[in-house]
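Handoff note, outgoing to incoming analyst
You'll be picking up this chain. Sequence as last confirmed:
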Amino acid sequence: MTWRYIAARLNGDGTETIVHPEVPLGDDTTIKFSNNAPTELSGSISPEILDLVDDTGRPLIERWASAIYAEADGEIRGGGIVVDDGVEEGTLKLDCMGFAGYPNGQPYTEANSWPPNPYPVNGIEPTDLIREVWRHLQAQIRGNLNVNIDSLRTGLLVGKMVAEGTFDTENGPLSFEYTPLMLRWFETFDLGDAVSNIVENTPLDFWEEHSWNENRTQVEHFIRLAYPRRGARRQDHKFTVNENIESVILEISDQEYV
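Most recent structure output, in case you need it:
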C-alpha cells in the first residue's frame, strides 16, 4: 500500500485549495481512528525540505487554515486540520485534528435559542441537534468546511418541554422541574460537549469520512451517523488458541479478579 500526504488550504467558504500534492511526512507518521471522536494525525518534516511556501512566501501549512489528508492507493483514508506545529531538534512537528473535532470549544452564538419556541412537547430528534450544531458553525464567517451530515433519524425523542410538578414523599413534598434540551447563547459554550452528551445518552455513534470528488479536485467531508451503534455483533466468529490465536492474551485468576 502506497501512502502520500496531501496539504490543502481551507478557504472558509466551503472550498479548499490543494497546495502540496505530496507533503514529505516522515516514517513516524501516525493516524488514529475513533468512533465518536475526531481522527488524529501526526507526523514530522525534515528540516532540509524548503519548498513548503508559495510564490509569495506564505507557508503552505498553517495552523487552523490547512488540512493534511492521508491517501493510500488513490483513496483518502483520513485527514485533519493542522492544530499545532513546532520545531523539535530541527524537525517540524505537525498535529492534526479530524474535522469531527471542529465543534469542540465552540460556543452557540445565535440570538435565538434552538429549537425555536414553542419547544416540542415530547422532545426533539437527537440527530437534529447534531445537524444544527454543524449548520450553526458553518454559517459563521470563514467557518464553512463543507462538512455534510448524514440524514439518519433515530425515531427517538429526547428532552422535554419545561414543566414543574410536586409529589408527596414520607419526608414531605418533593418538587421537580423538567428542562428541555436546547442550544442557547448564554449557556451553550461548548458545542462539542453538546454533541458528546446527545451521543452518549441516546445512544448513537458518529465518525468522519473523507473522499475525492468526481474529478479529484476537492476532498469531500462527511459526518456519518449510526443508531444505536456502528457495526453489528458477530455470532459466527470464535477465537481458539493454536487455531487463530497464537497465545492467551490475558490470564486472571479468581483471586486476582475484583
